[in-house]
Each structure stands twice: as C-alpha cells, then as structure tokens.
Design goal:
With 374 residues, the chain is α/β, with parallel strands linked by helices. Helices cover 38% and strands 17% of the residues. Helix 11 runs parallel beside helix 12. The protein starts with a helix and ends with a helix. It binds 2-acetamido-2-deoxy-beta-D-glucopyranose (3 copies). One 2-acetamido-2-deoxy-beta-D-glucopyranose binds next to helix 11.
Amino acid sequence: MRYLGATLLSLISAAWAAAISASSVAAVSSPAAADYPKTDGLLFNIDGETKYFAGTNSYWISFLTNNADVDKTLDALDQAGHKILRVWGFNDVTSQPGGGTVYFQLLSSGGSTINTGANGLQRLDYVVEAAEKRGIKLIINFVNNWSDYGGMPAYVTAFGGSQTTWYTNTAAQTQYKAYIKAVVSRYANSSAIFAWELANEPRCNGCETTVLTDWAATTSAYVKSLDPNHMVTLGDEGFGLAGDGSYPYQFGEGLDFAANLKIETLDFGTFHLYPSSWGTEYDWGNGWIEAHGKACEAAGKPCLFEEYGSTTDHCGIEGKWQNTSLSTKGLAADLFWQLGMTLSTGQTHNDGFTIYSGSSEWTCLVTNHVAAID
Ligand SMILES: *[C@@H]1O[C@H](CO)[C@@H](O)[C@H](O)[C@H]1NC(C)=O
Ligand SMILES: *[C@@H]1O[C@H](CO)[C@@H](O)[C@H](O)[C@H]1NC(C)=O
Ligand SMILES: *[C@@H]1O[C@H](CO)[C@@H](O)[C@H](O)[C@H]1NC(C)=O
C-alpha cells in the first residue's frame, strides 16, 4: 500500500503532490531511518521519546471488514494514550473459504497463494493506514504456534511433518518466508510498524533449544535483509531461564530465553504470563517479571511484557503486575491480553481475559496505568 503510494508520488509533479499532501496520500512520507521505533538502552524510543510504554493486544482487528470499526478501535487506544498494539499478521487456511471470509494465505503442497485481495491483506493495509494516522505502533506477527487462524498446524496439514519439525521443514519454511516477504515489503517503509514478530508463542516441545534458536537467528536475519529499519522480535512466552524451577522456567518447550536474546537480529525480548494455564500462583508472576528484567539487563536489550492475563480480579492481579513491570529495570513496555471493544457487530470476543474500553477495568488497567507512567 505504502509501496504503491510512494511510487505514484515520484511520478506526479511536486505541485500536485503538495496540493494533495493533506489527503491520505500524505501518509506515504516515510520517516528517516532514525525515526522508526527503536531501542534506546533498556527502553524503547517512539517518535523521539524514550520512556516506558503501555499497550495491548488485538488478534481480531486485522480481520474486521468494517473500516469504521478499525477507526473506532484505534481512536479508543489513541485517546487512552496507548502507543503499542500487537496484532495478528497471519490468517492461514488449507482450503478456500466461502464468500467474503477474510484469510491471508492458502497453504497447499500443490502451490500456495497469498491473498492480497479485499478479503485478504487489504484488511491489514487498513489497520496499518489507520495506525499511521494516529501515531499508534503495531507489532505484526507472521505465524501462530496454535491452530487459531491456521498457524503451524495448517502448514503441517499442507506440507507434512509435525509441529516440532516445522522449524526445519524445507517446504514449510520456504512458504513461511514467502509470506514474510509479502507482508514486510508491503509495510517496510511505514511509520506504523513497531516491530516484526516471528511467531506467536513458538514452542518446540522436547526439542533441543538450539532448534528454535537456530530458526530464530535465520528468520530474523531474513527479515532484517528485507527491512533493516524496523525492529524484529521472537514472540515467545519467555520460557527457559534461571528461576525457581517451576514449569515456565524449564527448557522443555524448547526455549532458552537468554540464548535467544543473544541473537543479533532480534532487538528485544518478549514474554507472556498466564498463571491460570501454567499451574502457578498469580503472585508468582511478579518474580517472573523480575527474572526477565534481569535477563534483559544482562543482555543489554529491553524486555517487552507482551501478553498477560488473569481469569479473575483483573484490576488487583494485573494491576500489580503492571506496577512491578513499570518499576523493574529491563522492562520497557507491557501489553495486556486482550483489548475489548463494542463495535458494529456487538462486543468483541470475551475469553475471560478481555478488558473492555470504557469499563471500570479499563480505568484501572489503562487510564490509571498510563497516568502512573507519565
Ligand atoms: C523504502 O526505504 C528504503 C530505504 O530504507 C528505500 O531504499 C526504498 O526505496 C523505500 N521504498 C519506497 C517505496 O519508498
Ligand atoms: C504449540 O506448540 C507445542 C509445542 O510444540 C505443541 O505441543 C502444541 O501442540 C502446539 N499447539 C498446536 C495447536 O499445535
Ligand atoms: C499500582 O500503583 C499505583 C500507584 O502508582 C497504586 O495506586 C495502585 O494501587 C497499584 N495497584 C496495585 C494493584 O497494586
């Protein structure tokens, strides 16, 4: 989208460009390399400002078919002072869905196709364009570990192998890279990209941790070769690091947090927090946050507390995690899971973790948190 716009601009006269510069075409002006979101020591710098940032996750925004709903959602974040929004940049299918259903990629061993049509990446285009207008920065993710919206299981259906051989399966990796190229080249010059993310919660259960580390090194270097200006991150849950030895600290899911942080082409670390799924206490989460801060400090890169949720007492439990994150060295931003909105189709998905815009929970976890940061 930006790509086409910039090409068009160079073809038309400067006068005409100036005349229309107030219209949406103005959005094609690419920032200078120095102005893209970047790391600054153990923090992030966005539009020239280095500080701790707050944000959230919306897996559904890229699949909305009503532009006004996208605008309404981003207006709510903009008004709240949220700067970072993490979205799904993937939507994989293995058979052609029925009329109008949004999907981004059809995976098939006989030849995959990337859907750049109105029910394809043009939906993501609108999110990027709307974010540019409001100064919101997006984390765009390329594949899911889980089967929601296709994910690695869809690649396995199309190309064979298994969830754990996905990382080294040539056919799967070739198509995954083709998809990355399609997405990254679409928005490489956009001011709305915070970072590219290799996967949502990649795991390789029972594998040597080098499998994921090698894959992350190769893939992140590939992304940087396509777009040297934007940050790249892994998107993992932060498993596998020194701590109390409970399940999340173990290496059994094939992740080594400190080893992955050392990868030169990964700009910052990510971790998630779901005690209700992990068999740990909610309070244990505060130590989990601090352990990642310590690892990030040691690596000299910021940590993004990228997803967190409790199934009960959102304000009390998650509010405490936010406070811990804000006061822990090495922690640069937090994004709660997940954003809730009331749109033209009604309330967005309530998975028990959802914080709805305008609710009393929004006041404590968004309004008060942003005020505490500032
Ligand atoms: C995007 O930016 C790169 C440099 O970072 C530049 O080489 C390329 O021409 C730009 N593309 C467009 C379409 O502006
Ligand atoms: C996500 O990854 C883990 C580890 O490989 C695996 O056990 C799990 O089945 C995956 N999820 C799906 C839905 O494939
Ligand atoms: C978080 O810190 C703020 C002060 O910045 C305080 O008002 C609030 O009660 C704390 N939240 C929790 C849940 O501890």
